[in-house]
Amino acid sequence: MALALFSRLRSRSFSTLLSLDSKSPLSAKDKTRAALSLLKSESNPEKIVEICRAAALTPETHLDRIAFSIAISKLSKSNNFSYIQAFLDDLRRSRSDLQTERFASHAIVLYGQANMLDHAVRTFQEFHNDLPGSGSVKALNALLFACVLAKNYGEVKRIFIEFPRRYNISPNLETYNTVIKAFCESGSSSSVYSVLAEMDRKGLEPNKTSFGHLLAGFYSEDKLEDVGKVLNLMKEKYGISQGVSIYNIRIKSLCKLKRSSEARALFYGMVNKGIKPNSNTYSNLIHGFCSQGELEEAKRLFRGMVNSEYVPDSDCYFTLAHYLCRDGDYEAALKIVQQSIGKGWVPNVTTMKSLVSGLASSGKVDEAKEIVGQMKEKFKKNVSLWDDIEAGLSQ
Fold this sequence. Notes:
mainly alpha, 22 helices
């Protein structure tokens, strides 16, 4: 049924979808960019598939992978699973450039994203039926990661135990790191000690990614004594120093536990050791203090970040704007939003509506109208929404 559905789609004309009235053929990158723009506003499943086919997407580039992910996400959220199967199966069978380990692995991950694990396993098995000798560890890792995306941690354990022997695959560091991630996300971080022991027996050393997953797991389970044990294990047995990536995981984890003051102390301890923070460090702290209602500290950290010549990402601006509006500090929120828009980053509609309403209610109608004008200019498809909002502003 799925393939019959897709054969109807293939008979339609795709060439006009991404032409953009161009007199010369679009480059692959330009096609992908056009596809991304179309996909963001498209909800019709047939059109979503048409757009992807017209762009001739591959898993070779970052932009193409984003486009695939958006398409699969939209189709799965609207329960159009038959389109996902038809689309991915047709690509694997009809395009010689996609009859590769790389695309099979990517298709497996996309099935995991859509929570279609039976199709992920089928794709893995079909790919391995064509392989002589040893199986593909890359495809195995993709299948394990697909299970993590689908949050089916029991399936991670089953596949990890059964498939390497069945398909003659030697797990590598990425395999073990994915299994460690699954244990930690499922609240079974203590089980990782046995995984580390198995790695030792096989001569594989864990890396910062391994310990990052484990630290995040113990923090999420509020097992702070184990955090200390892991840090000692890293240093004493494996000679792995913390570095900014590990500190960021610890700071983010503490903030999630509403221990932002402890996260800040850890931040200063990191700086005193000569380890330079990055924008993620500040972003985690800012989000932590905002979520605990300590907006003055969040604003102070934001200023410190900018003064230290770190570049805030869009999430920093969006987080501050959201919480400042929620706290009724519309003047400060306006400054943050204006800076964010200046960089091409616009907070979500809920935050922007809150800001406009708050400015108007505090007597700053002109500023509110200016924001509305910017929204109407930037998002022409939502002009009627902003017209209604503007009409409700006090004169």
